[in-house]
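[recover] target loaded
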């Protein structure tokens, strides 16, 4: 028996992909007074965070819950008199989980007794903790442990920290011993200060299971709680929190790197605190745990080695300092010094930590987790993910606050006080002369003017590294010109590297990972302040011993070097920075050459060398080179394993690296810095050939900036902010490389299918090199990655397939379609599915017995393409066609014209059945949501997962702006993350919100295939989604950086098979419909998708081709010659598409499917789903020189059980406040448009209040809604998440008390009010959560207090008054007005392209410093009409809230007008002025907007008349 039931790795499932999220909090007495009341309130807090917790597949088993308290000394003395316990603090208690195996338990206990004696401590005794297993679910019961407690007396220890160290030594040695002897136990805590009570429990089961917690004598001065939401249904007692020092809500994105660096460092640690005992503790990190428990391992070690908990937290989770202008010099020096010894553990994080004497909490640099707290007049503090988790009288509240990004909160229980972030960090920063140490020891390298280096035989060198004309002219030159990664479109239809007939670069076998659901990507452009490319070279010092020598490093601003910088580095005359060059010639076997590298590195380190330069710049061009990625990664892994990695830096001097992906991969696999010498030579060649204007120096600088920014963007897709954390974090997955190569040379990298061995990698490198030597012309190959070439790489959509498909569908000629299908299916191994054939064991059936075409096409969908990216004609034609056949078209993320919700006179229906909800929330309002059959949350898209989007101003025509709620001619930004989805429980909340907004629609979640997508799909299924879409990386019709098109995400075949298998293992498959898309071209493709587990199928590229697309790949330029991907009326006139053609295509695909189904013996699609037993690898695939080595058996793995959706999800919508209390009372009022007013108390567990009522109004009255204030709902208390989400005109909701996150999300015309319950000082409190009014489209809101982070993100039309906000306010805003009667946080107005903010700050200069001025300007409030409009908003704020601040402002109106700062986006202002001017000249609103658009964007005049 174990304490978990994780299945072993099988098929494509691996336990290593597991994630979790949660609700956290603590309740404590600041003065350190203990009581049972605190324990009871902690347990109550857990229960009120239950909606953030997960449940197993049985709906009963909790994902884990627990609490940490002080050692209950009085309780133990009362209940264990036989132990004769010493004074509090002089004994420790170990809480242990054992199996039912008595013999094993006794062996482990005897060993622990032995270790206690060995460490010089005294055993007091053992106790069995009373537990109640009867209340548990069957699953929890089957893994429930025997809970035992060991009591240990401290002997010969100077202080409590020394005693804690002894207990740590005892525990660690016991764990190692049990592991070696294959015995099982788990120790939640062993300490003289604190105890952990946790398990596979629901929140309410914690106190019922642990009977001791119910005893009145069980007292503590604090209770720290955690309620877990796991992405699986596999139970685990160990993975519940609290851990031993921390509770963690978040995700460590850089975990692999953090573990590797810790492994390398620990072998060089010297510790005064542990002395010779240190070796008993290694390894410090237990790799079998979750990311949270590994962070806890590191935290525990540093605290016990002598750091304070606060110092440890600052080291592991530093606030941003390199790009942050708001940080003091002393703090900057503190962080810079610690960065020289350790990288951040990076990711979205809120942790609470304690050593039993101090409790603290820290938030990540991005503020991506909620954290609110109350301090009361009777010295209590309640801190949690939400407000309302403990009942506190408003009169007893001293103040209400939030934890800001990068900030820390500390309660010192011994001193009985709260230590502020400023005081705490200032004290830390002044503890040592960090600034002086850095000044004396840190070397900064910057080259003078760059001059070109002579490189002989340039063309041959370029060819030998695979350079093409396309690489130079379409990639390197654009980057050197613009400093940006170039854009492409229409996805990727070339084969995977392992399927290609041509020799490929090793870089192409690695795909970038990205964040979806379990953690958010970040916006490295608009939130640049949190990013850092800072890089340090040279040997690391000793992390456990702070002194001046640790600062002895070389500082670089970016890991991308220039020739000049590399020369400077290798010319430093300083014994601490000596270098050695390791040449990458490839003359013997690869294995031999790699061993040579290791030996040379060892010898260099032995000589005191601290800089290893791996160079493929060989004198003789006829000598092939080791692929640089293999050289870097294998050496990095070798040095980590041998404990030498921190003694040296690895610099790659590479001719192969040229694209963003190459640099990201080199850094990700361990390179400290890279010099792309051949790129610089190519830039010089381009300048000499007149292909590039400007100086060499400027071109090199721009190229380097473009690449560095590109690497940051790649990191940010995974939610990583710093290059230092990204280095060695291996945020990639290998596709088509053998397990043996991965395990040895890319250790720990995700890889789902076995592929080519080391020898083939060598053969491929040598082939490419030989082709270069054999080519006798002086020209580079043209290149064919992004454009089809007759003699280039295979493209699935080529002139032949495009022409045949278009002709077939236009003529309704099935025979011609069969020719197209034959070409697509059989021509080349283009996709993984082409590797399979059907085995011949199946009994065929007559075609007439197979499900009909009309039935099959109902499973078909068209892809999510937004109106704005494609033309009105293309968008509507797709909807008409899909509605005709009973399939579904998808609106994409650009909203939809409400005129399309009505049936046309000729009976056509232009309404998209699927309405998408993406991060930009364009046009997402109540009316939009109720007019859908399916609501799709787009977590990622195939072309660019982990990234946002941008619609440039020249594509925002007036009709596009109208639908998106923005301004013509002004660019629009979709943020990389959904700002209401930072974790899995947030996604569950949005699913719940949308189900409230339209109870009849299916809720779908779109994911992109990547390693671990199955586990994410399991979490999504637990969150209540009805449909899960797995998109392939090769799909994608939108504009996207070329790096993303080629190098991010996986084929859908892998993602779909993994999701299907993992959902089945979890017992969740029957709850959801699985859908897939990504370059589905033929009926055979769809049959393959069904066999791998999909029930529904999406098509995007093929339908566009049917509509006339000819793959110009210029969608992003608005120049589409066939009127598909353009808004230009002149080009749209050339649109030849027809709904009949789409119908023909869908019918052809279904007919082809029927033929295969008859052959295979399947009567229905339903019975075909998941039947991989009818597939086998084809002979053609087995004989391919690379693909023949692929092991695809994991794709065909079958799990027993239901293979398709059988049961509907139950989100318990009937229990919502709206259905429980409101709807029956307001139905008459909605029907008869009669006013009604109702009053209620509200709690944080009442979520999404008002949304169902709003949906009923929208269904009946559309966008018009009801008269203002028809339905007035007044609440008192703590409103739960998403209060007033999507409420339409006619509804007015107010809450006296406070509101949680997502207040007013998607506000659609209604009115929302949050009112401070007590006036005066209390109005300065934080009373609203994070991400309020996200995506609001219209309506008003009044907040009588301060709000949290990311206020009014993507507001496109609501008018709001608030009395102070947190960081990133008004981000991406496109419309509406926001009046802020108070201060704002950092990075205000980032990406703000429309609307106006009026800010009344306490210090104008400081406010302006906090703004992101990239897109905005500041003005005074001078226009009379505008002054009156702002005054009117403040008067209404006063009327609704009785705000004393509003009263004061109105009383001193002239002073307010003088001091207020108007923040207006520059482009928006210019357009509004232009439109006003043309209206003044007599043009109508519509014509004035078009005229202004033409002037601003330079679109042809002719466009106006069309």
């Amino acid at each position: 028996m174990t304490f978990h039931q994780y299945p072993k790795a099988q098929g494509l499932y691996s336990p290593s992909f597991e994630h979790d999220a949660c609700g956290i909090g603590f309740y404590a007495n600041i003065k350190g007074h203990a009581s049972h009341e605190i324990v009871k309130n902690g347990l109550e807090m857990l229960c009120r965070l239950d909606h953030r917790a997960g449940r197993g597949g049985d709906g009963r088993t909790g994902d884990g819950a627990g609490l940490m308290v002080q050692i209950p000394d009085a309780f133990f003395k009362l209940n264990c008199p036989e132990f004769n316990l010493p004074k509090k603090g002089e004994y420790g208690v170990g809480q242990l989980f054992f199996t039912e195996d008595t013999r094993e338990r006794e062996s482990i206990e005897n060993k622990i007794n032995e270790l206690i004696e060995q460490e010089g401590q005294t055993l007091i005794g053992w106790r069995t903790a009373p537990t109640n297993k009867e209340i548990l679910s069957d699953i929890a019961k089957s893994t429930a442990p025997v809970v035992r407690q060991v009591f240990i007396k401290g002997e010969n220890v100077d202080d409590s920290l020394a005693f804690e160290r002894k207990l740590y030594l005892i525990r660690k040695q016991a764990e190692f011993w049990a592991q070696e002897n294959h015995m099982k136990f788990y120790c939640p805590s062993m300490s003289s200060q604190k105890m952990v009570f946790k398990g596979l429990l629901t929140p309410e089961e914690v106190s019922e299971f642990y009977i001791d917690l119910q005893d009145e004598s069980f007292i503590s001065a604090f209770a720290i709680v955690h309620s877990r939401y796991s992405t699986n249904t596999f139970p685990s007692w160990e993975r519940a929190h609290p851990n031993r020092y921390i509770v963690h809500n978040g995700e460590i994105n850089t975990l692999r790197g953090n573990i590797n660096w810790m492994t390398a460092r620990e072998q060089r640690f010297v510790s005064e605190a542990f002395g010779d005992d240190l070796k008993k503790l290694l390894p410090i990190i237990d790799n079998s745990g979750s990311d949270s428990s590994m962070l806890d391992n590191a935290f525990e070690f540093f605290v016990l080695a002598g750091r304070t908990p606060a110092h440890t937290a600052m080291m592991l989770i530093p606030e941003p300092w390199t790009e942050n202008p708001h940080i003091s010099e002393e703090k900057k020096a503190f962080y810079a010094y610690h960065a020289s010894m350790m990288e951040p553990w990076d990711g979205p994080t809120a942790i609470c930590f304690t050593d039993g004497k101090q409790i603290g909490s820290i938030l990540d640099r991005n503020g991506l987790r909620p954290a609110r707290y109350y301090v009361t007049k009777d010295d209590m503090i309640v801190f949690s993910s939400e407000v309302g988790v403990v009942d506190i009288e408003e009169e007893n509240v001293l103040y209400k606050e939030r934890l800001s990004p990068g900030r820390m909160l500390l309660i010192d229980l011994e001193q009985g006080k709260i230590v502020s972030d400023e005081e705490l960090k200032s004290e830390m920063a002044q503890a040592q002369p960090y600034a002086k140490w850095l000044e004396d020891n840190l070397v900064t390298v910057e080259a003078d003017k760059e001059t070109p280096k002579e490189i002989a035989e340039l063309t041959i060198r370029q060819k030998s590294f695979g350079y093409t004309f396309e690489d130079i002219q379409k990639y390197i030159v654009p980057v050197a010109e613009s400093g940006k990664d170039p854009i492409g479109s229409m996805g990727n239809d070339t084969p995977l590297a392992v399927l290609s007939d041509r020799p490929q670069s090793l870089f192409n076998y690695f795909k970038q990972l990205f964040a979806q659901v379990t953690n958010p990507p970040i916006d490295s452009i608009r939130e640049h302040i949190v990013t850092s490319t800072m890089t340090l070279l040279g040997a690391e010092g000793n992390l456990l011993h702070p002194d001046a020598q640790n600062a002895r490093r070389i500082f670089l601003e970016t890991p991308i070097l220039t020739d000049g910088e590399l020369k400077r580095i290798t010319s430093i005359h300083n014994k601490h920075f000596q270098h050695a060059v390791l040449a990458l010639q490839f003359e013997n076997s690869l294995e031999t050459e790699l061993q040579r590298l290791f030996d040379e590195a060892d010898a260099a380190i032995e000589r005191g060398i601290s800089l290893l330069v791996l160079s493929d710049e060989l004198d003789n061009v006829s000598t092939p080179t080791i692929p640089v990625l293999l050289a870097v990664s294998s050496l990095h892994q070798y040095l980590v394993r041998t404990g030498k990695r921190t003694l040296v830096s690895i610099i790659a001097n590479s001719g192969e690296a040229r694209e963003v992906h190459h640099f990201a991969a080199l850094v990700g696999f361990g390179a400290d810095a890279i010099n792309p010498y051949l790129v610089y030579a190519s830039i010089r060649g381009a300048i000499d050939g007149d292909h590039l204007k400007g100086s060499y120096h400027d071109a090199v600088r721009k190229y380097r900036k473009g690449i560095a920014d590109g690497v940051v963007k790649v990191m940010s897709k995974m939610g990583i902010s710093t290059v230092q954390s990204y280095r060695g974090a291996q945020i990639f997955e290998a596709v088509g490389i053998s397990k043996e190569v991965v395990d040895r040379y890319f250790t720990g990298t995700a890889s789902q299918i076995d592929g080519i061995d080391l020898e083939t990698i060598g053969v491929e490198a040598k082939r490419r090199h030989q082709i270069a030597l054999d080519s006798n012309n002086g020209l580079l190959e043209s290149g064919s990655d992004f454009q089809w070439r007759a003699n280039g790489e295979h493209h699935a959509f080529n002139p032949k397939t495009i022409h045949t498909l278009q002709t077939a569908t236009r003529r309704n000629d099935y025979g011609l379609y069969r020719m197209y299908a034959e070409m697509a299916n059989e021509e080349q191994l283009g996709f993984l599915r082409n590797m399979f054939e059907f085995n011949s064991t199946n009994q065929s059936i007559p075609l007439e017995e197979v499900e009909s075409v009309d039935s099959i096409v109902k499973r078909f969908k068209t892809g999510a393409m937004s109106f704005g990216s494609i033309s009105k004609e293309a968008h509507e034609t797709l909807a008409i066609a899909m509605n005709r056949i009973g399939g579904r078209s998808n609106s994409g993320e650009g909203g939809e014209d409400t005129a399309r919700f009505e049936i046309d006179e000729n009976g056509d229906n232009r309404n998209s059945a699927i309405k998408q909800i993406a991060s930009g929330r364009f046009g997402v309002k109540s009316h939009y949501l109720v007019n859908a059959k399916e609501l799709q949350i787009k977590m990622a898209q195939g072309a660019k997962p982990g990234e946002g989007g941008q619609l440039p101003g020249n594509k925002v025509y007036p009709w596009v702006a109208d639908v998106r709620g923005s301004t013509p001619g002004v660019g629009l930004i979709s943020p990389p993350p959904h700002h209401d989805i930072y974790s899995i429980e947030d996604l569950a909340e949005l699913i719940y919100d949308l189900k409230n907004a339209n109870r009849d629609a299916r809720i779908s979640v779109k994911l992109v295939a990547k390693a671990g997508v199955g586990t994410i799909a399991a979490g999504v299924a637990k969150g209540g989604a009805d449909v899960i879409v797995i998109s392939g990386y090769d799909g994608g019709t939108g504009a996207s950086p070329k790096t993303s098109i080629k190098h991010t995400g996986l084929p859908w075949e892998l993602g779909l098979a993994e999701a299907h298998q993992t959902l089945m293992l979890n017992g969740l498959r029957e709850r959801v419909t699985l859908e897939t898309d990504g370059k589905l071209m033929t009926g055979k493709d769809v049959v393959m998708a069904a066999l791998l587990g999909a029930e529904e199928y999406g098509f995007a590229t093929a339908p566009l081709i049917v509509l006339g697309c000819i793959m110009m790949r210029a969608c992003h330029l608005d120049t589409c010659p066939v009127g598909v991907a353009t808004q230009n009326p002149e080009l749209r006139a050339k649109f030849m598409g027809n709904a009949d053609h789409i119908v023909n295509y869908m019918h052809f695909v279904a007919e082809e499917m029927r033929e295969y189904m008859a052959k295979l013996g399947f009567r229905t699609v339903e019975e075909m789903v998941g039947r991989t037993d009818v597939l086998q690898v084809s002979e053609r695939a087995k004989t391919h020189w690379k693909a023949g080595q692929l092991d695809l058996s994991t794709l065909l793995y079958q799990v027993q059980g239901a293979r398709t959706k059988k049961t509907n999800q139950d989100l318990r919508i009937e229990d919502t406040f709206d259905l429980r209390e409101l709807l029956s009372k307001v139905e008459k009022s909605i029907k008869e448009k009669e006013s009604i007013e109702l009053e209620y108390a509200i709690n944080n567990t009442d979520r999404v209040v008002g949304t169902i009522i709003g949906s009923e109004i929208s269904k009946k009255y559309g966008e018009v809604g009801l008269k203002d204030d028809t339905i007035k709902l007044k609440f008192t208390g703590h409103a739960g998440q998403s209060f007033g989400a999507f409420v339409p005109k006619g509804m007015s909701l107010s809450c006296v008390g406070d509101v949680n996150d997502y207040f007013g999300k998607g506000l659609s015309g209604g009115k929302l009010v949050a009112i401070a319950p007590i006036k005066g000082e209390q109005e300065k409190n934080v009373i609203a959560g994070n991400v309020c009014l996200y995506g609001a489209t219209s309506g008003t809101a009044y907040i009588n207090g301060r709000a949290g982070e990311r206020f009014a993100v993507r507001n496109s039309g609501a008018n709001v008054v608030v009395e102070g906000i947190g960081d990133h306010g008004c981000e991406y805003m496109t419309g509406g007005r926001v009046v802020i009667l108070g201060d704002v946080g950092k990075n205000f107005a980032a990406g703000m392209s429309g609307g106006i903010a009026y800010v009344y700050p306490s210090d104008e200069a400081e406010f302006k410093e906090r703004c992101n001025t990239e897109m905005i300007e500041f003005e005074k409030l001078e226009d009379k009409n505008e002054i009156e409009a702002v005054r009117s908003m403040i008067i209404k704020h006063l009327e609704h809230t009785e705000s004393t601040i509003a009263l004061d402002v109105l009383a001193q109106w002239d002073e307010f007008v003088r001091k207020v700062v108007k923040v207006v986006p520059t482009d928006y202002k210019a357009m509004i002025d232009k439109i006003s001017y043309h209206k003044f000249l007599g043009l109508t609103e519509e014509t004035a907007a078009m005229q202004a658009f033409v002037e601003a964007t330079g679109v042809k005049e002719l466009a106006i008349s069309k």
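[recover] notes: The first strand starts at residue 20 and ends at 29.
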